[in-house]
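Please decode residue identities from the backbone states below.
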């Protein structure tokens, strides 16, 4: 079954037993546009699994643009993760942080590691409690003016060989993007690589 976040809703796509999925044959799959609906103004930004639950990382704005109705990370006032058992029409008690959105998440050994906010902060949760795992060195982020960020996009976080690998998109001294790693055993934080454009603006690591 595939889970798809769109706005405040979660859709599901599931192959029908005894058939082979084919997009052109409606009898081979079941699509549910709203399997779950979150509270108003929330938007699903990232999805991962923890045990038998789907964990929905979201953003919610302080205010909505009157002209576009859009939710933006810059105006987000909450970083909430909604646990869902995949079948009920409602969710369990959300995990809450006062950050600018849950922007990327991955599950390793029944722990969800996730980036929240725009200051390079990584957290971990077991589904109940939350702790900060690391934060990028503050001297790398400048003085954090309103337009400065160290953002991890939803697809730019993974686990490989004992490390979290993540793409950091920054906007200090000209935009540039780097691949960082965090060793879950030793706690070592390192820059692994940088896209060849160096300090050229406009380049992002999306996944």
């Amino acid at each position: 079954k595939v889970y798809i976040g769109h706005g405040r809703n979660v859709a599901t796509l599931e192959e029908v037993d005894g058939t082979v999925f084919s997009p052109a044959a409606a009898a081979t799959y079941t699509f549910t546009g709203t399997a779950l609906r979150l509270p108003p103004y929330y938007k699903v930004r990232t999805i991962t699994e923890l045990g038998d639950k789907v964990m929905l990382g979201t953003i919610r704005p302080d205010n909505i643009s009157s002209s576009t109705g859009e939710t933006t990370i810059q105006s987000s006032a909450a970083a909430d993760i909604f646990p869902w058992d995949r079948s009920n029409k409602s969710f369990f008690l959300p995990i809450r942080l006062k950050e600018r959105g849950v922007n990327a998440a991955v599950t390793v050994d029944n722990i969800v590691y996730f980036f929240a906010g725009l200051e390079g902060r990584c957290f971990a949760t077991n589904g109940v409690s939350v702790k900060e795992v690391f934060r990028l060195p503050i001297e790398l982020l400048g003085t954090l003016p309103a337009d400065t960020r160290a953002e991890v996009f939803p697809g730019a976080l993974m686990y490989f060989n004992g490390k979290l690998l993540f793409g950091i998109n920054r906007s200090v001294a000209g935009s540039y993007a780097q691949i960082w790693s965090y060793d879950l055993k030793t706690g070592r934080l390192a820059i692994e690589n940088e896209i060849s454009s160096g300090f050229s603006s406009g380049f992002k690591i999306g996944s």
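Observation: The chain has a mean pLDDT of 87.
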